[in-house]
Amino acid sequence: MTFARDMSAHHAQAVDMSVTMVKRAADPAVKLLAQDILLTQQAQIGQMGGWLMAWGRPLASQEAPMAGMDRASMGLASAEDERELQHLPVNTAETRYLVLMRRHHQGGVAMAKSALKTVKRPEVRAFAERVVAAQTSEIQAIDALLKKRMTGQPPAQAQPEMPEMDGMQHE
């Protein structure tokens, strides 16, 4: 239950950033990536909301989503980062989106891997496994796009890997 709420909130930010880039991106590859993330993660938010309703659980709790967790370590962008995507020159915004989404996906993978350590429901376990596979694949695609845009150090080394999230509680 906690995983569904937290991952929904995490996905919501990816959807918001992707909406911005679907509207703004000039690079067809960035626009396609943003559209894929937007559609996939919005559908997954609906799926997780459907689980909560089917389980007779509220869509929100008294605690804010991801309460007590470090937003940066979960790959969440700051409000300023999100605003910048709307106003930076398009080429700069595209690169910034790729960097932000790479880190965001690293956080999503870490959240899903953490859930796999404790979650018992088979549908949630299968979902978490799909998140790990899909977002790991998208990180590789983002790396390829960033490599085309940047010179020097490969993107995989430019961003630190996300830490393990052993302290997360999942029901």
Short description:
With 171 residues, the chain is mainly alpha-helical. It is globular.
What can you tell me about this protein's structure?
This is DUF305 domain-containing protein. Residues 2-145 form the DUF305 domain. With 171 residues, this protein is mostly helical. It has a single domain (2-62, 74-158), classed as Up-down Bundle (Ferritin), CATH 1.20.1260.10. 69% of the residues lie in helices and 0% in strands. It has 6 helices and no strands. The protein has helices spanning 2-24, 28-54, 79-87, 90-116, 122-149, 155-158. Helix 1 runs antiparallel to helix 2, helix 3 (79-87) runs antiparallel to helix 4 and helix 4 (90-116) runs antiparallel to helix 5. It is globular, with a radius of gyration of 16 Å.
Quick tags:
Ferritin, 171 residues, mainly alpha, 6 helices, globular
Low-confidence stretches: 152-160
Q: What's the Cα radius of gyration? A: 16 Å
Task: Just name the CATH architecture.
Answer: Up-down Bundle
Structural class: mainly alpha
- CA-based shape: globular
- Structurally, the number of domains stands at 1
CATH class (first level) name: Mainly Alpha
Number of strands: 0
According to CATH, what is the topology?
Ferritin
Mean of residue pLDDT values: 85
Oligomer: single chain
Helical segment tally? 6
CATH homologous superfamily caption: Ferritin, core subunit, four-helix bundle
Biased composition (Low complexity): 153-162
Pfam family, one: DUF305
Domain DUF305: 2-145
Organism: Deinococcus phoenicis
